[in-house]
Recover the amino acids of this structure.
């Protein structure tokens, strides 16, 4: 499951150098709480997605605190996203700009948006991973999408980024 967890963490955090560390934290958290899992093997990935989301949520909150401390100390943020240069300069610029926008979202909106858009989860899966109702998950994605669209209007790099397919789902 480690490769699947790393892919999901990458989709939630973006192209960051600390994805492997966070993925290891997810596996440790999963091993520590596996005794609480009561489902069958078919539901294991859904449970692990929830564990991953909770670990990433905690990581993002800690990261926000670290950024505030760095700001007051005058340090630069060493965790700038890295994008493969093989993607081409326009694609790299769009990916970096998209992550700069998404990183400014409130944590739960960011997680809902990235689970839906980047990880391709259906809304019931997003709700389960976040531990919220389907209506709340829909609201979080809708707000994040509005924030993204507002940022997209003023950016040439984001003009080609599509957020279609994020319509509310009730199934």
């Amino acid at each position: 499951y480690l490769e699947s967890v790393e892919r999901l963490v990458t989709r939630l955090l973006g192209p960051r150098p600390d994805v492997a560390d966070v993925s290891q934290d997810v596996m440790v958290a999963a091993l520590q709480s596996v005794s609480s899992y009561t489902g069958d093997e078919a539901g294991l990935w859904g449970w692990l997605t929830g564990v991953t989301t909770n670990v990433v949520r905690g990581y993002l909150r800690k990261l926000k605190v670290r950024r505030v401390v760095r700001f007051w100390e005058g340090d630069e943020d060493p965790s700038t996203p890295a994008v493969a240069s093989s993607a081409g300069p326009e694609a790299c610029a769009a990916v970096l700009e998209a992550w700069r926008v998404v990183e400014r979202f409130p944590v739960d909106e960011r997680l809902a948006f990235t689970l839906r858009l980047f990880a391709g989860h259906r809304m019931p899966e997003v709700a389960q991973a976040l531990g919220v109702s389907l209506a709340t998950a829909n609201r979080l994605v809708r707000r994040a999408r509005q924030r993204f669209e507002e940022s997209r209007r003023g950016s040439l790099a984001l003009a080609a980024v599509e957020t279609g397919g994020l319509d509310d789902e009730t199934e």
